[in-house]
Amino acid sequence: MNALSLPDSQFSLLVERPNDAELLRTLFFKLSLSLSLSLSLYLSAVPTPTPKPVRHYGRSLLLSIALVLLANSPEYHHSFAQYCCSSGPNNEFELKYTAISASTCGCFHDDDFTFATQEIVETSKAEPGFVEIGYISSVHGLEGEVRVKSSTDFPELRFSKPGRRWLRQQVLGREAIREVELLQGRGHPGKKSWTVKFKTINTVDQAQLLIGSTILVSEEDKPELEEGEFYSNDLVGMRVIHKETAEPVGTVVNIFNNGASDVLQVMLNSSTADKPESEASASGPLVWVPFVEAIVPNVDLNKREMLITPPKGLLDLNIRTHERSKKERRQIEWKERKKFQKCLIAAKKKLCEMEQQHVFHGFRYGERSQTSTLADQIVNVNSKLLHQALQNLDVPSKRWNFHEFMEINLAKDVRSTLRISEACLSNSGCGEKVNASSKLQEKGHLLTSEGKVATVLYMDDCQRKGSSFAPDLVDKAENSSRLLVERFFHDNQKYVKTKDRDSMPLILVCPAHEIQPLQSAFESHNHFGFDSTKVSFLEEEKIPVVRTSLEEQSKYKILMKSPWEILQKPVGSGGVISLLSSNSILENLTEMGVEYIEVCSVGQRFNGGYTLLGLVSSCEANIGIQTFKDINGLEDNFDMVFSMTFMKHLIKNMNKLPFDAVPKPYPHVEKVDNEWVDVVPSASNSYELRRSIYGSLNLCPPDKVCLMEVTE
After folding, report:
1. Is-contact 600 585, C-beta < 8 A?
2. Which residues form the Ribosome maturation factor RimM PRC barrel domain (predicted)?
3. Is the pLDDT assigned to residue 493 strictly greater than 60?
């Protein structure tokens, strides 16, 4: 039997008088309580190598012994409660003692220990029926007052008027709400805070236990608002609908005040075009919408929705345009810079090999943006093409002439020549002459419908100015290339039928400033019947303008338009061949099953189309050329068909394709005695390096060439 539970009769056997037995029992309990409390304080204060969970267990065991003692001796509840109150919020005894004392005795009074008498209710974070009005940030003074950070628009009503309030606290890892009584409060406008006093909180230790607690009021106590005013909690979760289009925009997730007005934080709806509403994503980009009548004219609390009339672009602000995080974008930018530096070093090395070091002088002058422009231009110089052109200039040769080539070589040895009138070509037949070209047209149509033909449409400034079929479109017209292309594709007589375009890859080669207008034209016209995935836009090939070196006549120097800009001009129609060798374009066409490539200018009066293609296929020729009786304009207006096999042969032997050096006067800058000097020539002082697509005939045997001559 435990000595602590001996009855008085047995204790009387040990002492002479019954009063002495009662005194002994009292002393024994006091001694046991003192030892238990002393040991628990020692274990909690003195460091020990025992693992933390074990130490906590030992302390809990001693506290449990003390609880048993107190349960059998209610007179010591008061002193032990004072210990618990002064031990701080980390004391594990706190709520255990409250529960046990409540079940074992009824002598634990409100004034002695506040927490024991307050009803504690477990709650979730968003407890229904309550509204947050602020939180306790610190202790104020020595009489149990606390400092409160307000989050309500009615601080005087909430913190100065006595009455019931509720505190939401963390208790043993769970949130709990208990009722308190506010006695008084006073504001501090400069600090945007209030000092309040709660009943039964009279010491600093008691007040410290409240730090971090959220102060709540009942939703029933909310004051009535004037018309046009709303509680923020009522707006959160509302649907946002565009008033003009009646389309759902998103959901209000929060409200902030920026000083001038309230601002709604709206989560936009995710794309649900191909998904039912139940499968729509619950997350989306966040945007800010000012809560003013001009933008939010209607708010319906019953329907839980609001109508907005946002200004243009408002919903696009603050939307994250990148799927990657900022850190990932920085890493990608760093890799791109490293890659660019490697390309720049390689490009500078190649220019040094061609003795063009004067191009780098601009790096020593100017601002960062100017030197960056120079670096971009150096990287973009086609050094391989420039090297081929300079080597071609070193070899004295007569300028290549297509007219002479036609008369000397093709006139005698050409494999096949087809003469067809413009009427037959445009109307797909003219009486008895239909039989002469109908089979060729059928063959060409079959190849096109099977996706075995790709088209390269070429245009440059000369093409636009010398357009033979639409001169009215280029007379001081902006975006004339776009207008020419629209006219070209809208006329089925000048190009393949619309029904066959879906299977045909299309590549457009044009100046850089024309790419964007052309892309817009294709998008607005549904790509003129072409498959959008098979349409490509390429910038025309450019090459620097050169002049003879003053030191050595056999050397050529690149002209500089400014210290940070290289003077470059288009290569010409022959640049299409080098473009096809870049970016794996030819390999992609081969994978698509393309067997023939038609290269034509946008300014053609008539396009050979099916007939020229059928002629090349029937003759098994490498090149097919459309000519006219008047061939003076063939340099700028051409239509040629290449077999894929011969095009690959051209790319492997591009160094054998001829260049023409066209003398031109170009103003430029030169560095003389560490100063930049403007040079304005009065005569031709430089050379444009141009390559014609007809130069490919030099690599093709005449018996592998077929002609289609269009007559009037």
Report:
1. no
2. 233-314
3. no
**Residue recorded with tokens 């293609």:** 613
Name the H helices within 428-584: 434-449, 461-465, 480-490, 512-524, 575-580
Which of 318, 319, 310 is CA-nearest to residue 247?
310
> Contact, 626 vs 708, CB < 8 A?
yes
The rounded distance, in Å, linking the Cα atoms of 3 and 410 is 129
Q: How confident is the model at residue 611 (pLDDT cuts 50, 70, 90)?
A: confident
Contacts of 338 (CB under 8 A, 6+ apart): none
CA gyration radius, the chain = 46
Q: What mean pLDDT do residues 173-199 have?
A: 90
| Residue 665 CB-density burial (10 A; 0-12 exposed, 13-18 middle, 19+ buried) | exposed
- Residues with Cβ within 8 Å of residue 665, at least 6 apart in sequence: 681, 682, 683, 684, 685, 686
pLDDT band at 171 (very low <50, low <70, confident <90, very high): confident
Contact between 230 and 301 under an 8 Å Cβ cutoff? The reply is yes
**265 contacts 280 by C-beta, under 8 angstroms:** no
**Residue 185: what pLDDT?**
94
Q: Copy the structure tokens of residue 32.
A: 């046991």
Q: What is the DSSP string of 639-699?
A: EEEEEHHHHHHHHHTGGGS--EEEEE---EEEEETTEEEEE--SS--EEEEE--GGGGGGG
Tell me which DSSP letter residue 476 carries: S
Phi, psi of 32 (to 5 degrees): -65, -40
SS3 state of residue 50:
coil
Residue 224 CA neighbour count, 13 Å, CB half: 2
pTM over 0.70: no
341, 375 in Cβ contact below 8 A?
Answer: no
Does position 121 have pLDDT exceeding 90, yes or no? no
The residue among 590 and 15 whose pLDDT is bigger is 590
Mean predicted confidence (pLDDT) in 158-177: 90
Q: Cβ(496)–Cβ(454) under 8 Å?
A: no
